[in-house]
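Researcher: Good morning. I'm working through a list of sequences from a screen, and I'd like to move beyond sequence-only analysis. For each chain I'm collecting a predicted structure so we can compare shapes side by side. This is the next one on the list. No need for commentary yet; just the structure.
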Amino acid sequence: MTTKPDNPSQPVKTATLPEHYWDDIIYILNEGLADMANFSPKESDGYTPEEIAKRERIIQHDAFDALVRSLEQQNA
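Model: Good morning. Structure tokens for this chain:
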């Protein structure tokens, strides 16, 4: 992944991650990291067992941490 900086004088940031992490990262961004950390969905809230399992897997997965570490290493 390569992003163009808003300010052209800033360096371009890149991250190299396993391909399967990207779906999780997109999900994290869409759901909001804070929402995921502070909200535990239940079937009674209208979530399917699959949606609940996916959220739990992603919360416990290190895809987000891997992205942060990769960006930090690229900018060191």
